[in-house]
Amino acid sequence: MTFTLKASQQFGLPNVLFWTHSACAFMCFTQCMNLMQRGLTPLKDAKYLTNGDLETIIDWIPGMKNISLRDLPGIYHTTDPNDKLLDFVVEQIEAASRASAILLPTFDALETDVLIALSTMFPKLYTIGPMELLLDHHQTTSETKFESNKCNLWKEESECLKWLDSQEQNSILYVNFGSVIVMKPEQLAWGLANSKKKSLWVIRPDLVEDEASIVPQDFVSETKERELMVSWCPQDQVLKHHIVAGFLTHCGWNSTLESIINGVPLICL
Asked: What GO molecular function annotation could you give as one example from this UniProt entry (predicted)?
């Protein structure tokens, strides 16, 4: 929240920024002005989204060798020549450079190259790991208990935890593509069916694009004995559950961190 910088500077107070993204995402945002000046964003028009232009290799971002334009944050795929979000990112990075320190919820070993590069740009940048670990540590070592303040776009269905309790150890594949991603899941559905494995699939009501039903009816019939589908769930509790053997994910940063700290193998799409 860089808007606090003005107030802290006015009163002569130090200001430590907590940036909730990964180090890679932070680095990508620091390059917003460079990308604009090189004409790589905004895209000239919508055809650049499908004509292969997004496969352009960006070989000059420090610590992120040969990343493609497609793999940069989605804000860089805008076709609006007056996109205010790009200006906002530039302003945020400029403000971040004036912070007393910057904290990132990541691990040194996970993003070594980009963190080394960032340290030359922001000397007072520190990695503190996932906040969930700090909360868990406090809950087990302190007499004072804290409740985490959750903010979800969807209502959680905690009943799935009872279903997990009834399953065999390390037998469930957890499938969740986050709160934003929209996809066409028919092939994925049949991939899960053909695996013959049990799974807990979080499939939001709006997950499907241009489809009359969320999954094929044949899929429901094929997997009804080994598949539980819910619209949303308490992911932190699911990933802590000893029944869960793996996580099929879109690789959102929170999902990645939660999987790592709970030792759940990731299948990344």
From this structure: quercetin 7-O-glucosyltransferase activity
For domain 158-268, give the CATH number.
Answer: 3.40.50.2000
Q: Do residues 186 and 262 lie in contact, with contact meaning Cβ atoms separated by under 8 Å?
A: no
Kindly list the averaged pLDDT for each block of 10 residues, start to end, along the chain of length 269. 85 94 97 97 94 95 96 96 96 94 96 98 96 73 59 70 92 81 67 84 63 61 77 90 93 92 92
* Domain range 2-129, CATH architecture: 3-Layer(aba) Sandwich (3.40)
So where are the chain's domains? 2-129, 158-268
Count of CB atoms within 10 A of residue 189's CB? 23
Return the closest-CA partner of residue 57 out of 70, 44, 67, 71. 67
pTM, 2 dp: 0.82
Please name the amino acid found at residue 61. Answer: I
